[in-house]
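Researcher: I'd like a structural prediction for the single chain below. Treat it as a standalone chain; there are no partners to consider.
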Amino acid sequence: MLAAAALLRRCAVSGLHAAVRRPTGPAAVLHARCYSHGSQESDEEFDARWVTYFNKPDIDAWELRKGINTLVGYDLVPEPKIIDAALRACRRLNDFASAVRILEVVKDKAGPHKEIYPYVIQELRPTLSELGISTPEELGLDKA
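Model: Treating it as a single chain, here is the predicted structure.
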C-alpha cells in the first residue's frame, strides 16, 4: 500500500501520466489521473490580477510583452480596464509601438464580432486622449 501511495505522489509531483508498476503484495494499484484540482478564478479576480500586473510601477518592456502575449493566448477579448492598464504601462515605458499593437490585437481578437472593438475603443477613448495614443484606424494601419 505504501508503494501505491509513493507512486501516486510521484505521479502528482512529476506529472507522469503512466507510471504503473505491479505491486509485490496483494494490494492492487488503481490508475490515477494527474489533473489539477485548483479553484476556478472568477472574471473579477482575473481582471484584477491583470490590472495589478500591468500597474506595477517597475514593469519593464519584457514583462509588458510577456503579459500581452499571455493575454493574447487566452480565448477572450480583454476587458477595457485591463487594456487601459496595459496602455498606461506602455506610456510609462514610452513604448508607443506596443500601445498601437495592443489595440491591433484587440481588434484581431474580436474576430467576427464587429461590435466588440468599437465598444472597447469607446470605453478607452478618454485614456487614449489622455495618453496621446492614436488608434490603428487613425494612423491608417487598417488599410494596409
